[in-house]
């Protein structure tokens, strides 16, 4: 299954969302979801972020790929992007703006650890690169 997620940057912070579902209730994640048939990853990302967070995203850049195994193999593509809007909660109970070094202050999926580690490593350059775009 192909899945996309977004490390959304605003005001030099990254947005993480607390899921409200039976499997992942109370766990934070990078928002996103499944890529539908006949949909590009970018189209899926924009749709999922609009559906889940009620915001438009811009300056979308591929960040990394990862694989996860839950009920089936998940092929995850993570993107960084920006927004000027504040998320509206629908499938999440909380949305927090934080920095990569503070993400582990919140319960987070182990499978997202490689994304967080790469964000921590690249954060000084990434936040400067994205700052001029929002």
In words, what does this structure look like?
The chain has helices spanning 41-53, 113-131, and strands spanning 2-10, 13-19, 28-29, 32-34, 58-69, 73-82, 92-98. The protein is α+β, with helices and mostly antiparallel strands and 134 residues long. It has a single domain (2-131), classed as Nucleoside Triphosphate Pyrophosphohydrolase (Alpha-Beta Complex), CATH 3.90.79.10. The N and C termini lie far apart (32 Å).
Summarize this structure as a short list of keywords or feature phrases.
single chain, 134 residues, alpha+beta, Nucleoside Triphosphate Pyrophosphohydrolase, seven-stranded mixed β-sheet, 24% helix, 37% strand, globular
Give a short summary of the structure.
This protein is of the alpha+beta class. The chain is built from two helices and seven strands, in the order E-E-E-E-H-E-E-E-H. The chain has a single domain, classed as Nucleoside Triphosphate Pyrophosphohydrolase.
């Amino acid at each position: 299954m192909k899945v996309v997620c977004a490390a959304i940057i605003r005001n030099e912070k990254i947005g993480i969302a607390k899921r409200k579902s039976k499997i992942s209730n109370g766990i934070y994640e990078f928002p996103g979801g499944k890529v539908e048939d006949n949909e590009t990853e970018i189209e899926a990302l924009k749709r999922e972020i609009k559906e889940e967070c009620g915001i438009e995203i811009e300056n979308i850049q591929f960040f990394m790929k990862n694989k996860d195994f839950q009920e089936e193999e998940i092929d995850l593509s993570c993107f960084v992007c920006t927004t000027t809007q504040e998320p509206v909660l629908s499938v999440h109970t909380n949305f927090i703006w934080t920095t990569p070094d503070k993400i582990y202050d919140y319960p987070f999926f182990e499978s997202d650890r490689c994304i967080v580690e790469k964000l921590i490593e690249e954060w000084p350059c990434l936040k400067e690169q994205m700052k001029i775009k929002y």
